[in-house]
Structures are given as C-alpha cells and as structure tokens.
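Entry 0007
Protein: Type II secretion system GspH family protein
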Amino acid sequence: MRTAVMKRLGKAKEDQKGFTLIELLAVIVILAVIAAIAVPLIGGIINKSKKDSDISTARQIYDAARLYVTSELGGDTKGSGSSNVEVAITTLQTKDYLDDNLVLPSTKKQNYRRESCI
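Output (structure tokens):
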C-alpha cells in the first residue's frame, strides 16, 4: 500500500503543469518595468500631438485672415491709419472664411469667439 501511494505522489509531481511563484513574480516585475517606461512616453506623445493641433488651428485662422484681407480689403493691411488692420474671428466666421464651430483641439472649447487676428 505504501509503495502505491509513493508511486502516485511521484507520478503526480511529474505530471504537474503550471508556473512557479518565482516565475509569475518575474513576469510581473518585467511588465511593471515596461509599463514604467511606456507610460511617460505615451503621455509625451499625446501632449505633443495636442500642441501640434493647436498650432495647426492657429495657422488656419491666420491663413483665413490673410485670405480675408486679400479678398475683401484688396490686400490693404494698413487700413486708413498707420496701424495694422484687425480682423475679428467672428467676421471671418460670418463671411465663411472659418467654420462657425471653431474649437481649440486640445481642450475642445470654443476659445476664439471675440479675439482678433492680424
């Protein structure tokens, strides 16, 4: 009887499948190191893309104002006085040089309503 139990125990050890606690801890540590490296990199990429989209929106506003001055004012950037012409964003929106729902891409807020360009 004792020999039969010993055979079963020996056979059970050979047939066991799975991971030891040390192996599982090693995998968790490796994943934690990878996460510690990747999270700041991804955050930097997201911030850079927000900044780039804001710059692109500002460039679109600038280009729309230049097109407005060229088309509507005949390219006269000085106006009647010696100072530069100011073009309100609402003017660009009413004359269809810009969309009415102009938003700052990084915050999704409408920040351009009463500001001027050029």
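Curator remark: The CA atoms of residues 94 and 100 lie 8 Å apart. The first helix runs from residue 2 to 15.
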